[in-house]
Structures are given as C-alpha cells and as structure tokens.
Amino acid sequence: MLKKFALAATTVLILSACGQSDGGKSATAASGVAASVAAAASQSNSTAATVSGSLIERINNKGTITVGTEGTYAPFTYHDKDGKLTGYDVEVTRAVAAKLGVTVEFKETQWDAMLAGLKAGRFDMVANQVALTSPERQATFDKSEPYSWSGPAIMARTDETRVNTVADIKGLKAAQTLSSNYGETAKKAQAEIVPVDGMAQALTLVQQKRADVTLNDTLSFLDYLQKNENSGLKIVWTADANEKQGAGLIVNKGNQDALAKINVAMMELREDGTLKKLGEQFFGKDVSAQ
C-alpha cells in the first residue's frame, strides 16, 4: 500500500514563499527580506542536521528515540479499546527499539504533516506504512529494511472459480472507486465497472452478488478478512513480488550509521520470527516477506 493509495495523500516537503513587489519599498529592503528568508532556511537545515547527527548517539547511549505516527490508521497505528497505542507498525517499532536497547516515544501527528515534521527534526523517524516511492521523498529521506510488503489484489466470493489472474476479470463486474488506481486497473482489464464510494461498499456489493470482484490493496483485504471471518469472501489473486512495495521506518538523510543498526535489528526480528508473529496477529498472515 502503501500509505492510502486510493486517497492519494500528498506530503509537502518543500515550502516556498512568494512575494509581490511594492514600488514604495527600496531595493535594500527587498535584499534584507531575501537575506532573512535565506537565514531561516539555513537555520531549518541546521536543525535537521543536528537531529540527524544525534540519532546514532542516542542509539549508542541507549537513550530515547522519538517516532512520528498517526495513531488513527488501523491496523497499522491506532488506539485499542483501552486507549493504548498499538498496531502492526507500532509494535514492529517497539520490537526494533527493544533490540537496540533504546526507549521509544511516539508522537502522534496527522499524515499530511508527518514527513515535514521529520524533516524539521520534530522526531527521529516515522513509522506509518511509508514506502518512499517518489523521487522527491527518496532525495530527502532513507528507509529501513521493509517490515511489510503489499500490492494489488482481487477479492471475490468464496465460490468464485473463474478468476486466477487480472486478465480473468474481463467482462466481469468489478466494484471500484472511479478515481483509484485499482479502478484504472480494472478498466484496462476490460471489466464492467460498478462505481462505489470505497472498499467497504465494494465488498458489500460483491457479497450481494451485485458485483463479481473488487480490486484493492492486499493488506487492506487481509485486515478485513481478519476482522470478518464469516464474510463469504476470499482473495483470488495477488500481485507478483516485483509489483509489491515495501514499507519501512523512515529517517532523514545523513543517518547511515543509525540506519545500519536499525536494519540489523529488523533482520534479526525477521529471522527470530517476531515479524511473522506480528503479521499473523494483525493480518492473519506473515506480511514481512515479499
């Protein structure tokens, strides 16, 4: 997924300022404004650099690391019935922190401000199903070893036998949101599109036999099946490994030493079965393998 494919959330990473010339202002004043803007940018960059340089020190000194997350994005990061922050991404982060011997402090923030907050130094890393797929994000941040992999999938009723590949949905009714990439995939496969507002409505139409299939993210489907054991639905196709995207812990550029230690911890969690256990807890399946 990763993060909210259908919603296409966009994080603003670079802030720009534009002004309008005032004939009553002198060139000197304009120059002063430009200098102030440059100074502010320099100070912001300096802050980010300070955070980047201190992360490895906090890890080495068994200190506290801060992690940005939503807290409202189940099953990845949310509050349980007792109000405790939990979720797959949250528990993976806690397991990594335990391997590193550090204390983790979560800072909940809205998705739209999360990566900007990381860049500004408000936290050391982000755990929120981020895949770093855009060149802009890749130029600004680094990602750990992935702890989950996801890609497109097709859901149908349990008695469906016609669908084994995307090509098999040709001529079938696919319940899809018109603006999503999954809807576009269904159109290209020449399915008959049944418009819906979201995944919940799409699954209901498939259950009611008003649609044959629906396409969406693998992890979203697994989460649904985990919570609805008697849904009468099943996943009939998932994307090949090379079509999947991996989510990892995100840090600012310049944290190579810290990232190396985080990666070692993540690989140990994969080898000792912790990631598999957490995947089964939240999705009913190991989602850490591509």
From TrEMBL:
Record organism: Alysiella crassa
Record localization: Cell envelope
Ranges for domain Solute-binding protein family 3/N-terminal: 64-286
Keyword hit for Transport: no
Protein name (record): Probable amino-acid ABC transporter-binding protein HI_1080
Signal peptide, first to last residue: 1-19
Keywords on record: Signal
Family (UniProt): Belongs to the bacterial solute-binding protein 3 family.
Predominant place of localization: other
A Pfam family annotated for this UniProt entry: SBP_bac_3
Recorded superkingdom: Bacteria
Gene3D superfamilies per the UniProt record, alphabetical: Periplasmic binding protein-like II
Cellular component GO terms held in the UniProt record: cell envelope
